[in-house]
Design goal:
single chain; five-stranded parallel sheet; about 475 residues; five-stranded mixed beta barrel; binds flavin-adenine dinucleotide; globular; about 30% helix
């Protein structure tokens, strides 16, 4: 019998397996497609690999400004694709190695809960193996980390249309399209828009809201949009139908317009995978957003936890990692019989908190943020202090990034407590240093505390410190 059976080997599942294996627990990890899940195979890693090639290409093209001559710069899409696949393969092998190292059993197939754990009776899980046949396993506890898939809205003309692809389809196209229309101006849509426009594609993004990346700070989002110089944004526009590769939409002013392209990316969000792993048989509470969980990643059924995109709480790989860690701490308490079901025994501190989850949008120009935006604070009635500094005052940014457009660092603090509430960045390296903002918020540091921190110079990140002094 296993201590824990994990369904899904994305960031949530494989990290939990590794941590439990490290604690010498007997773990079965079930995966029906590929180790590493969406993130490693069709999400974070392949997009960033392609974006890196695009960045190298733009940098080489612009190198003359820095006194470096690179003549006849071009790219080879087939080689870029090959490199992307090699990166995923290498990392997937790395996960397989880690599972071996920590003694985790891996079953390749579809896992399905056929009976939840009841009292001292273990859970039963059936695996329909990819190689054929089935297996049944018993587990004292279960962690579901079945992830999410692209959401496809019922837009007339989109179903079975070979010109319409989702993010997974777009990652492995055989040739770079001359024209691309992206439906949806969220993170995934904008990253692909930046990628292909950097490679010379004429890109149009159609977004229903008035601004791209709806959760971004309202002062920063337009800045980021303007930095994506090659992309044509149609904001406040509603897609009505698709005919072939033409997207028909209504503008904010009510005019009917059309965007012609060679390919259309549908990037309107993702939905949790709730139908493959026996959620109903297990009696789990589900909402359209995902599996209902508490702050310890417990579901309504004792003995079953859920982590990652399947909960619909925060669809990011690093959120999945943290949710998995929180779930593992609670599973270990449960397995080792410490504390029973009491929240106090589990420890208030080792619970999932969402107030300091950083996010990032990658590309030649980056954007990242953590904590409250100005509009979040206003909606909560919190009086704030704010300071924003343009990237052009950063020596490092000016020296290295003449091609990557405008940018700024904005910091928000609570006027009453003087605690840092939000850090928002548009500009190069944003994704690399936003964790610092998360640390300030998570540790509830005040303006005066941050003023005493020393940042390395010259770095783009030191603008956080300068903005805090500006407060
Ligand atoms: C194009 C794109 C770019 C992204 N970029 C970023 C980024 O830069 N940064 C970031 O933080 N996030 C990014 N994400 C989101 C990130 O990929 C997800 O948040 C993350 O993968 C969630 O991890 P997970 O473990 O919850 O689920 P997943 O990674 O989706 O893994 C779930 C796994 O469960 C398996 N599974 C499902 N049902 C069963 C079953 N019944 N039996 C066995 N196996 C099953 C699936 O095959 C899958 O492998 C991106 C996503 C996409 C699509």
């Amino acid at each position: 019998m296993y201590d824990t059976i994990i369904i899904g080997a994305g960031p949530g599942g494989y990290l939990a397996a590794e941590r439990l294996g490290h604690q010498k627990k007997k773990v079965l990890l079930i995966e029906e497609q590929y180790l590493g899940g969406t993130c490693l195979n069709v999400g974070c890693i392949p997009t960033k690999t392609l974006l890196n090639s695009a960045k190298q290409y733009v940098h080489a093209r612009e190198a003359g400004k820095f006194g470096v001559n690179a003549a006849n710069v071009s790219f080879d899409w087939a080689v870029i694709q090959k490199w992307k696949d090699e990166v995923s393969t290498k990392l997937r092998e790395g996960i397989a190695g880690q599972m071996k190292r920590f003694g985790v059993d891996v079953a390749l197939g579809r896992g399905e809960i056929i009976a939840p754990p009841r009292g001292t009776a273990p859970a039963k899980v059936k695996v329909t193996l990819n190689k054929g046949g089935t297996e049944e396993h018993e587990g004292r506890t279960i962690l579901v980390s079945a992830g999410s898939v692209p959401a496809i809205p019922p837009i007339p003309g989109s179903k079975d249309n070979p010109k319409v692809v989702d993010s997974t389809g777009l990652l492995s196209i055989g040739a770079v399209p001359k024209r691309l229309t992206v439906i949806g101006g969220g993170v995934i849509g904008v990253e692909f828009a930046g990628l292909f426009s950097s490679l010379g594609t004429e890109v149009t993004v159609i977004e229903m809201m008035d601004e791209i990346i709806p959760f971004m700070d309202k002062e920063q989002a337009p800045l980021f949009r303007r930095a994506l110089t090659g992309v044509n944004f149609k904001l406040g526009c509603k897609v009505e139908k698709i005919e072939g590769a033409a997207v028909h939409f209504t503008t904010k002013a009510g005019a009917a317009e059309k965007a012609d392209a060679d390919l259309i990316l549908m990037a309107v969000g993702r939905r949790p995978v709730l139908n493959t792993w026996g959620a109903e048989a297990a009696g789990l509470d589900l909402t359209p957003k995902g599996v209902s969980v508490d702050d310890w990643m417990r579901t309504n059924i004792p003995g079953i936890w859920a982590a990652g995109d399947v909960t619909g709480k925060s669809l990011l790989a690093h959120s999945a990692y943290r949710m998995a860690e929180v779930a593992v701490a609670d599973i270990l308490t449960n397995l080792d019989g410490i504390g029973g079901n009491s929240n106090t025994a589990r420890g208030a501190s080792n619970r999932m908190r969402y107030n300091a989850v950083p996010w990032a949008v990658y590309g030649v120009t980056e954007a990242a943020g953590v904590g409250m935006t100005e509009q979040d604070a206003a909606s909560k009635g919190i009086a704030i202090l704010k300071a924003s500094l343009p990237m052009k005052v950063s020596g490092r940014f000016v020296a290295e990034n003449t091609f990557s457009g405008p940018g700024a660092v904005k910091v928000i603090a609570c006027a009453a407590t003087r605690r840092i509430l939000g850090v928002h960045v548009v500009g190069a390296y944003a994704s690399e240093f936003i964790w610092g903002g998360a640390a300030l918020i998570e540790q509830e540091l005040r303006i005066e505390d941050v003023k005493q921190l020393i940042f390395p110079h010259p770095t783009v990140s030191e603008l956080i410190r300068d903005a805090v002094w500006g407060l």
